[in-house]
Records
---
Amino acid sequence: MKILLINHYVGSNIHGMEYRPYYLAKEWVKNGHEVTMIGASFSHIRTVQPEVEKGWKEEFLDGIRYLWVKAPAYTGNGVKRTINMMVFVKEVYLKASQLAETYKPDVVIASSTYPLDIYPARKIANKAGAKLIFEVHDLWPLSPMELGNMSAKHPFIMVMQKGENDAYRYADMVVSLLPKADRHMFEHGLEPSKFRYLPNGIDVEQWESSTEKIPVEHEEIIQQLKKDGKFLIGYAGTHGIANALEYVIDAAELVRDEPVAFVLVGKGPERDNLIKRANEKKLTNIHFLPVINKKAIPDFLSKMDALYIGWRRSPLYRFGVSPNKLLDYLMAGRPIIHGIEAGNDLVAESSAGISIEPENPSEIASAVKKMRNYSKEALNEMGMNGKRFVVDTHDYRVLSQKFIDIMKEN
């Protein structure tokens, strides 16, 4: 099968996020499919940008053909980012006939964060006589409306809303990363028979083969905490507003007399504020360690007794969440304290830990005490429940085949 996937932010192991298209495509290529992916030359979430002097550039990585479209750089969410989007969509649309003729896809996937890529995807699919699939990562324009308080009458939102509505009408299938998004999509014209749920995944083989260790200074701190008899609660990831880590600091204050220590690894815009907050409370049971290489995350997580991840309350979460970080936690085989209020909860589904309401320090503190009093056997059982769940249902080897099955549906 010949698959053409359009994803503005597409990444790789070399470029960094966005990983999902890369991991799916890598598995498709392994199974004999021909994959072409189209992405913009600049994305704010990539670590390394492809070098594109002008126009288009073709390169191959792990058997995947990448077509990079020159698009202007930007910072933030202002006008320059909008220009970047429009340049990308326009370039792909203008080349649609040539792309259809050159690559002759059987399936065209608009793998979308914002919905305007449905227009070039549809044109390519029509020219090639291919199936058209709209893959939804985030619900746009609902996300900027609910998170950014943008008006439904804002011109940008109105354009995006038309794109979303058209996408549901044009697509042969709609694949959503969010399990409960169908309710929203039906309200915007999607026929129920078109909806398919396919969550985010993890490359289990790559995760388990990782041998990189955490830095020596991190190891020394963790080993000293263990010698002191501390029960370690770990967090690895961004220290941002969305991660609601200030509630962890408040929880640490509530258990300051318990043999417990919180160990946070990562970076982000809120890190300095969090450290200041912990210092003001004179807390000695919470430790902020510098960011580590992504490949060392499995080693760090394995050294913890339990893990914590929490979310803010958000109306968007009613449609479900599909976070990559939680999959790493589950793969680590450690019990998880999960602060969430959403349409789904992987920790509860897999019996991998304790789920609590979000933004509640006393609930976090209570869950920590409960975890510490569990037997090692009980903690290991919860951890292994989570790992088995991920391997069986979220390995990209599994998800890639499910996606192929969707492509083959009549």
---
Amino acid sequence: MLVVLLGAVAPAAAQPAATDPLARARQLYNSGKYDEAVSAAREAAARPGARPEASLLLGRALLERHRASRAPEDLVDGRAALRGVAAAGLDDRGRVDLVVGLGEALYLDGQYRSAAAMLEPVLEQMGLLAPEGREQVLDWWATAMDRHAQTRGPDERPAIYHDISDRLSRHLARYPDSAAASYWLPASALARGDLELAWDLAVAGWVRSTLAPGAGVTLRADLDRLVTTALIPERVKRMVDEPDAGSASARFTAEWDEAKGRWK
């Protein structure tokens, strides 16, 4: 998963990172050095006026460290740090970062519907986030909704996946380079049983991958896995007039390979 980069600190703390522990903690967090970020954030929290940002950084760094190590104490401590953040002391971007952190904590706790509800308002404030952050928030939200849907009965799931698709389509209209939306649109169509639409959306996502970060390498790999391991087998199951499943699978695979080959 990508990491939602934290924004700039408030002007009062805008000292060189070498001398300001808060700026250093943010720099270390954004560099993925979470052990050091935790230490710097704890140091910054002791300074007057820096506590809200420092507590936010501490909580987010602990959650990211938990994702890497699965140490339960990091999740507990990260949750406690975020719970203690005084939101009134944050700017607009800081409050968005706090909401994302709270949503991540719920996600890591396995509270998927609650996590999605926490993150959903952020989907309307994506302009405050860097492209990497937008992708991560959207992917967390869609994954949380997907996992929530798996806990519901078969009759409830189509409506949930329709909501996911509607949100993703609106996001894609604003950010046509979104790899997360390009993946989750066909995945959602497949989950609600619309196999033809899922196929068309997968092809569209493959073509759209040329816009995605990193030349779309990760998106293409994800789409290829979705089509070959899930969508094609489902299409074969639906074919009542095809006695040879292996032949049908090979035909669909060849069709997919041909579609990909046009846009390599």
---
Amino acid sequence: MKKLSVLASLLFVLAACNTNEKKAVATISPKSGSNVSGTVTFIEKDGIVTMKASLSGLSEGNHAIHIHAIGDCSADDGTSAGGHWNPTNENHGKWKQEPFHVGDIGNLVVGADGKGTLERETVLWSVGSKDITKNVVGHAIIIHEGPDDFSSQPSGAAGPRIGCGEIVRK
């Protein structure tokens, strides 16, 4: 019986090691006097990255969410995160509608309860790769007070930064 238990444990460990899943998380902290909190998770499997944002403490309506260039949320207003992450030097725009920054995620729809979720799936990002045009790790997620208009340059006229989290590999 003990041999069976050891074998089962070994198989579990081997199965866990064989997964090619990579994960990074941004824990969102409030900025500019807001009450925003939550997480944005990136999971890469088989070359596809799935991003899931789950946030609370927001006003009802649309709030822009972007990947910003610098993984630094130390400023009270989030400006330490720099501008949008745009390693391919494209104009600002709407997610997956040319042209757009790879950091242009879109708008998070928030209900009356102050909570919102958003999911994206793409091959344009990676978790921890050496490709600087794809690797999300080391950048920051910014939540804005207002919606992205998808056209104003360079950032979508989304208003103050009310939430920030550095994207960290887990």
---
Amino acid sequence: MTGRFTDRVAFITGGSRGIGRGIAEAFAEEGAKVAIIDINETALQDTEAAFNEKGYTLFAKQADVTNASDIEAAMEEVVDQFGSLDILVNNAGIIRDNLLFKMTDHGWEQVMNVHLKGAFYASRAAQKYMVEQKYGRIINLSSTSALGNRGQANYATAKAGLQGFTKTLAIELGKFGITVNAVAPGFIETEMTKATAARIGVPFEDFVKANIEHIPVRRSGKPADIANAITFFADEKSSFVNGQVIYVAGGPRN
């Protein structure tokens, strides 16, 4: 199979479901060797079976992004198996939504750990290989929630933090042929948005319709919409695009 990413190796955290799986599929369709890690073993097995059926090359491993040694071990295996690590997508994420006065220490810390500590551990581990080969692409998943969203003080803070992280790594790593950018999705139909609808007690179809009313293109987003932006940043031809945050939300965002 040939494509934009033939002979490239893409490593995606939280890659077994939703946006992460959509990103993994997009890279595989364009010829990349794909590695995914996730804590959900069942979802990993499902994704692995689906990829094998399509003849895609996939490395799938259960790992926790909040554990540095898990990340380092997985990346070492990937490099041993595939020969390089060219693209890292820090996609793993969780929500623990609540209004501030109801938010627990645990709910705050879980979100910070998965999004910020996870991206830090994965990026630190990946850059070692990327610096050595003088090439790399790191793409972080932010969110329109970074601009503020009721009931998401933890999530919004983490996603805003990832934007600062992105811009700083872009400055530090650019001279090594490594670009670092971020994609900030708006409303995307995934298991996570289904969980949000369930939490507030609204049928998912009604939740989708209500959100579409505020989206200029008058449709909800799909994982493929995010994967499209991710693959743009990951493209070898995008080497002069660095430290940027693109909002993929069906309309303008500041």
